[in-house]
Amino acid sequence: MRELVRQPLDSVAFHAKYGPWAVIAGASEGTGECYARELAAMGINLVLVSRRLPALEALGEKLKAAHGIEYRAVAQDLTERNAGLRIVEAADGLDVGLYISNAGADGFASFFEDSTDSAHRLVRMNISTLIDAANGFGKAFLARGKGGIVVMASGAGLGGQPNLAMYSATKAFEINFAESLWAEYHERGIDVIAIAAPIMRTPMLLRTVPEGFDLSDVYDPADVTHNALAGLLAGEPVQIVPDGPGQEKQPQVMADRKDRLVGFVEFNKTFTGG
Asked: How many domains are contained in the chain?
């Protein structure tokens, strides 16, 4: 697999800022499981959300035995209407300091030839569910004076791609939405980061790629999720993991996006008086 240098992460500081509970939407395998394992190792309790309740319970029991954490397993299809509202309700009564939007789907499609059913499912999963969940948890974070949101987007959100019209469009929404929340709330103690994720060796990838697909240039999802958590604590608004055509330019793209955001934060103060 492709090497990704891990950023330093202070687990004590992370727990103090984003504990004692974290919610992971899309937690049963792959990057969601990686997030769960690392957070549990820090002693953070977990609300695990996905369609597959047995997988969540099996993961939760393993992490409880290994790290002594508490967990809630919540069966929820992230493509359903009002899924985000139900995720917030499932965490009622818990002191949640971190929400991770980790919805995953195979978005490969031929837009004109196919029906729009899958397109609308992607909109509900990557946009509507994120909007409602981020709004609900964000209100709680404002009240407690701290908190964090990780949005697992994709490098596909940096521009259009063939056969990924709706996937790339909804992932672009995720990146811009997270960056905008960072710009608006970072100075008020709420950290938000968008991850333009690369191709990773996840169970979903292995189920969908054709036989003979070269896996030597894909990333370890545990490295990507670790750096996402480190970037959140460091106050980064976006991480672009180099991948695909033009990847040599992507570090500069990431730097330029942050410079633009910082500029708009200052520009916005002329309107808000902040």
From this structure: 1
